[in-house]
Write a structure and sequence with these properties.
The complex is a heterodimer of chains A (131) and B (335). Chain A is mainly α and 131 residues long. Chain A contains 6 helices and 2 strands, in the order ββαααααα. Classes of the chains: A mainly alpha (131), B alpha+beta (335).
Chain lengths: 131, 335
Amino acid sequence: MNAADVPQENSATYGGHLKAVYARTRNGQLALVQTCGWEAEETVTRQAVQMFDALAAAAQERARAGQSAPLEAHMYRARMDIALLAQATGLWRWQVRRHFRPAVFARLSEGLRERYAQALGIHPGQLGAID
Amino acid sequence: MTASSFDHQQASHCESGVMSAIARHHGMPLSEPMAFGLSSALAFAFLPFIKLSGMPLVSYRMPPGAIIRGLQKPLRFSMVSEKFRSPEAGAAKLDKLLADGHVVGLQVSVFWLPFMPPDFRFHFNAHNLLAYGRDESSGDYLLSDPVLEAPVRCAPADLARARFARGLLAPKGLLYYPKSAPQEPDWERAIPAAIKKTARVMLHAPLPFIGTKGIIRVARAFERLPTADPQAAKLYVGHLVRMQEEIGTGGGGFRFMYAAFLEEAAVRIRHPALAELAEQLVGIGDFWREFALAAARMIRDRDPLDTRRLAALLHTQAAREKTFFAALQKALRRS
């Protein structure tokens, strides 16, 4: 890739930052060239972000309908899945899945709420909120 | 040298950037591509049985830590690395090292770093950055993240969370710093040895999902993707492209960076054939970028989704890399 061909496509996913890639510069050497974005990369980053957004939105709908605890939506909002949330809290996957049941979630101990809040980086009071 | 005189330089990859900065800070100029190449960090691995958010692990380089460990022998120095059970112990040790004037490498999770752009913040636990001091009034850590343009600051609570994130490749507070200053390598020995190792990994790894064989495995996985569920197929294809291009690969899944290494090596050990091979590798990197573009167009429905066409590109790429690394091996044998 020549330095002149390094895409400069202003990817919103870069959040105003610049990244550096190696390309052939005018003096014939391979060196770092800054880039403000590439559409192909933006597409796949967006895709991953949107996947979690869609999962969170669906979980939120389920929470509103009383089919799932808000915990599930919080998990996807933190870009986690059940496997990762289980690892982050030190629980088994089946326990996490069980805690998604609204009736079980309602009886959750203070200690467990604290653990979930800690793992998700939110306040324990927010855990039950559907927002 | 004291930490206050730390000079931040942007790199394309975190671990090679951190090691290049550590060497430079200790008076041994070492470019990022040289750090990457000397530690034989280039590779390809497809490990479908390890899942990240339900997606198979794909990597265009050796596992995390390979650059930190791999530079010790050629640069004839040793690194001290330490993990911790508690965030408190991890913070105490980091503070002590910083107070002693050390520049300290840290393994962190990208997700918990507030200074990262929101769309980059996924649960990837093997990011590396350097701490070089603390702001006395606010207590913020002064960090040099090699993939960013400028140094950043981070509140102690945020850094602790990033250092002690759990999950796959959990950092467990890992910090590292050189015990002795890195020395100028014996280039004539270190460079050929490092290149031979990379060629061996790419061509003759005993496992079928490593090296060029791994690329063929991905191609076959693409061929098997369900046509009935285009959304799932697109996520799978997109995941591969993300691993190839997102945050710190130098573009083209590290192939451009390794080409820069070969070019520098050619001058260093007066071996012009390596410069010609570097040019070939640039072509291979370009082909990876074309693959990414073709995949992205399918994901956005600009082109019809055709995973078999992408698989065919991967088969071509595997063959090209096989020819390339065989030529690289041969070039070194003759000298």
